[in-house]
Design goal:
Helices cover about 45% and strands about 15% of the residues. The protein is of the alpha+beta class and about 650 residues long. The protein has a 7-stranded mixed beta sheet, sandwiched between helices. The radius of gyration is 31 Å and the shape is globular.
Length: about 650
């Protein structure tokens, strides 16, 4: 007590408790006292109002809930827009299917009478929405939502709180015995339900879905956005001013290229028809747990609807794609603005990222087109360069790095030197010019059907910006392809494929790899100066092409590295087309793999250990009494999450 008095006097704190009000009730000896004290500093004491005991609140312990109001400006938390809006775990899918079966015939007759494709899709969407409203209910989000909580525990908690209030009034042995009995039953039920929840969760989880557990250790609420600087470095606070700043910073208008679109297509690449299997694959093999759309219909709902009315879906998508039509109602989406992690100054617009919430039905159509286009690229080698990765089967980041590692190892056996120049395309999806893309598709002899669909897909987009639990009015944006779209990857690869054709036509010994916006150019020779000169000329061709096609390279992300067997070269550099000097480095990171000049992967292994350790500490948040994980479940989480992270890309760096 003396130490407490000394500390209070040292920090000049004042007691804010109301005198003679008990804050502690001992259920063991049935006594009460003023045990819990609340102190406030001199400055804070003036802001505290309305101190009282929460009679109806229950902490599940012997201590009372102390409540008071602090009248001060505070950081407001709002619901994260990416949280699932519906509680799909508690849906009665049998009743959901029965209702759709009853309305199925009516829907088919109605859609046959409708002639316009746009009206058909609108009608189908409304029918699905009406069914969702009847059987799928909204989730209630709090700061620390408990997935294992159920109605049984709610009733037991209310009963326990009621018995505690009765005992406080009468203080007899009978009331006390009822509290003890209810207390034990309540906590036994919590342990049982927690344990059962984890057993069911871990037994039913599949492959990558195990990483859902990370959402349990993250807050469901986020902070509001701070004030934002515009291009003139003026701070903007109001919603409309913030929206204008984001639109100018993230959707800058790209230069227009005048071309003649009325080019004749003599022979086009054969375009396969949309078959039922492709529609089924596009719907059923989508990440239903991750999708979040502006129309509040996730893939989980669409997949369930497809099982019941698959005939309607097959007819709708076949008509849309074969008639070269992308719906106007699908050209409107909502975009959520979220903070990027670990940034120092959040008043700069570039420290935020935009998440596009597209229509789920639109995603299916895009996925079907992307599947057909990717298949066409594999059977026709003129459509894409062989070394263009991502968006294609068996063209992953690991494949790209393995190709480089193989060439470096072969270089060492020949005792040559290999020099690499890394370029990064700036804001790739924001600078795809529609007219230029159409010109490239025509030059590649792509089917007229696909060209018409792409024209519909990339025109007349309207977006709603959403942040701080508010939504801006719809705004038109310049032509672009969305980073979150299934077809964006393959379209961008087609858009830049002539870049590599031009480089290879000029320098046949030069090798190149591209992983979407990450471009690598490298050459192997014994003469280092000659290597640097060739790379400089190749970079000049790349920058010239980018300027002519409304693209830009990010100078700050350009890197240079020499791979050598015996000695390390520090003094080499390349002066790019825009007079940017890129000096040689001893270690770089490419596609999340750290590569040093010796290619021994020591740095990469050290960084991997740091990442795994950080993830392990995050998992420790689940291994406590609140979640009631048993040893078997903890081991399963470790093997699935930690081991999978540590073993990712192991085939690149592991050497016996």
């Amino acid at each position: 007590m003396k130490a407490l008095i000394k500390w209070v006097n040292l920090h000049k704190c004042n007691l804010i408790n109301t005198s003679d009000i008990n804050t502690y009730y001992s259920y063991s000896d049935q006594s009460s006292s003023v045990l819990d004290l609340a102190f406030a500093s001199k400055n804070m004491h003036n802001h505290i109002k309305n101190w009282y005991i929460g009679e109806n609140a229950d902490t599940e312990f012997n201590h009372e809930v102390i409540l008071f109001t602090i009248v001060i400006k505070k950081v407001k938390l709002i619901e994260n827009s990416l949280n699932a809006s519906y509680n799909l775990q508690k849906v009665n899918w049998k009743d959901f299917d029965k209702h759709l079966q009853k309305t199925k015939d009516k829907m088919i007759i109605k859609m046959q009478r409708i002639t316009r494709l746009e009206a058909k899709v609108i009608y189908l969407t409304e029918c699905i929405k009406n069914t969702v409203k009847l059987f799928v209910f909204k989730q209630r989000i709090c700061v620390k939502s408990k997935l294992w909580w159920n109605n049984e525990l709610i009733e037991m908690w209310k009963t326990l709180s009621s018995k505690k209030r009765i005992w406080k009034r009468c203080r007899n042995d009978d009331a006390w015995a009822k509290i003890v009995q209810m207390w034990n039953s309540y906590h036994d039920a919590i342990k049982l339900i927690k344990n059962q929840f984890w057993i069911n969760f871990l037994n039913n989880i599949k492959e990558k879905e195990m990483f859902q557990i990370y959402k349990f250790i993250k807050s469901c609420l986020i902070k509001k956005l701070s004030s934002i600087q515009n291009l003139q470095k003026e701070l903007k606070i109001e919603l409309n001013e913030k929206c204008k700043t984001f639109l100018k910073a993230m959707y800058s208008s790209s230069s227009k290229i005048q071309i003649n679109e009325k080019l004749l297509l003599k022979e086009s690449i054969q375009w396969s028809r949309v078959i039922k299997e492709k529609i089924k694959h596009a719907i059923n093999f989508s990440a239903f747990r991750k999708a979040f759309e502006s129309n509040n219909m996730s893939f989980a709902i669409i997949q369930q609807v497809y099982k019941t009315i698959l005939k309607i879906f097959n007819l709708m998508y076949s008509d849309l794609i074969e008639n070269d039509y992308h719906l106007k109602i699908w050209c409107k989406d909502m975009r959520i603005i979220l903070k990027k992690s670990n940034k120092l100054n959040y008043s700069i617009s570039k420290t935020y990222r935009i998440i596009t919430l597209l229509n789920c039905l639109n995603k299916v159509a895009e996925k079907i087109i992307a599947m057909q286009l990717s298949y066409t690229a594999e059977i026709n080698d003129k459509l894409l360069n062989f070394d263009q990765m991502k968006g294609r089967k068996q063209r992953s980041a690991i494949n790209a790095v393995l190709n480089l590692v193989h060439d470096v190892q072969m270089m060492k056996s020949r005792e040559n030197t290999l020099i690499c120049l890394l370029l990064d395309v700036k804001e790739v999806f924001d600078h795809v010019v529609l007219k230029q893309l159409i010109k490239i598709l025509i030059k590649l002899k792509i089917s007229v059907n696909l060209i018409n669909w792409v024209k519909c897909f990339l025109q007349n987009w309207v977006i709603d910006l959403a942040f701080d639990d508010k939504r801006q009015k719809s705004k038109k944006i310049s032509t672009e392809i969305s980073q979150d779209s299934f077809i964006s990857l393959i379209l961008f690869l087609i858009y830049i494929q002539y870049l590599f054709s031009k480089i290879h036509a000029k320098f046949k010994n030069l090798q190149s790899f591209s992983y979407i916006d990450d471009v690598m150019l490298y050459i192997e020779k014994r003469n280092i100066d000659k290597n640097v000169k060739i790379l400089k000329n190749a970079a000049k061709i790349a920058f010239t092409w980018a300027e002519n096609n409304a693209m830009q390279f990010n100078d700050l992300k350009s890197e240079l590295i020499h791979f050598e067997s015996h000695k390390m070269t520090f003094n080499q550099m390349i002066i790019l087309f825009n007079n940017m000097i890129v000096k040689s480095k001893t270690c770089i990171q490419w596609l999340k793999v750290w590569l040093n000049w010796k290619l021994n992967f020591k740095v990469h292994v050290q960084m991997k250990i740091v990442t795994v350790t950080r993830m392990l500490h995050s998992l420790f948040k689940l291994m406590n009494s609140e979640w009631e994980l048993n040893v078997k479940s903890e081991k399963q989480l470790y093997l699935t999450c930690i081991t999978s992270i540590s073993n990712y890309d192991v085939e690149i760096w592991w050497n016996n």
